Amino acid sequence: NKKNTINTALQIAKGTYSQPKRMLNGYYDCSSLVWRSYHKNGVTFGNAYYAPVAADIGKWCAQKNKMVKGGLSQKNINNMKLNAGDLMFETGENNGRYKGIYHVEMIRGYVCQGFDEKGKAILGIAWANRPDNYYWPAGQLVCHP
Question: 0.85 exceeded by the pTM?
Answer without folding.
Answer: yes
